[in-house]
Design brief:
By secondary structure, the protein is of the alpha/beta class. 24% of the residues lie in helices and 25% in strands.
């Protein structure tokens, strides 16, 4: 996997880690989060989405931030402490290996994959792990860099076509439900798990 380091917030309040091209707070509003949900953020990085998700699910919910980098998870917890958020748990893990999340089958309401798939050649393995831990009717949300969109993100050969991601999700019996508004440089898709 490509190693991305934790970075500070730009004066515009948009995180540099998202290239300054994503507005996590606006995007999270589209997820349909309800209080008390269990949510996991695959490849959380420094928590650009994790913090907003944790606020939405409230103290009765649980949010797992998963990343391969310890310093990214330290950053998530520092942000959580700064905002008095107590419903986040971090797990250092490699999501490319089977059962890499270490979370139980059918345990999560939402699995978020934001800007993670472009970093891996094992996209199917990561999506498969997300499907494994989702409850029936749970949502797998994929946000990633759009191929051919330009911008200051990763090279185009690391980006994916939407149809490629849809095909991977279909292999796992995930049904596309919603296309998210994620801006000019990213695509966002919500898939639903049909079987439990």
């Amino acid at each position: 996997m490509i190693e991305l380091s934790a970075v500070p917030i730009m004066p515009t309040e948009k995180p540099i880690g998202t290239g300054g091209f994503l507005d996590p707070q606006m995007i999270v509003e589209q997820f349909g989060i309800k209080e008390g949900m269990n949510i996991v953020d695959f490849g959380s990085g420094a928590g650009y989405f994790t913090i907003f998700v944790a606020k939405k699910t409230g103290p009765e919910g649980k949010v797992f931030a998963l990343d391969i980098l310890e310093r990214a998870l330290d950053s998530v917890m520092a942000k959580a402490r700064a905002e008095s958020i107590e419903n986040i748990e971090t797990i250092r893990t490699n999501l490319e290996i089977p059962k890499g999340s270490s979370l139980p089958n059918n345990s999560q309401d939402i699995v978020l994959l934001a800007n993670i798939l472009f970093q891996s050649k094992m996209k199917s393995s990561i999506v498969k792990e997300g499907e494994r831990i989702l409850k029936k009717n749970g949502k797998l949300i994929i946000i990633d860099w759009k191929k051919g969109a330009g911008g200051f993100g990763p090279p185009d050969d690391l980006r994916s076509e939407v149809r490629e991601i849809e095909a991977i999700a279909k292999e796992e019996n995930l049904i596309r439900e919603i296309v998210l508004n994620t801006g000019q440089f990213h695509f966002g898709l919500i898939f639903k798990k049909q079987q439990g």
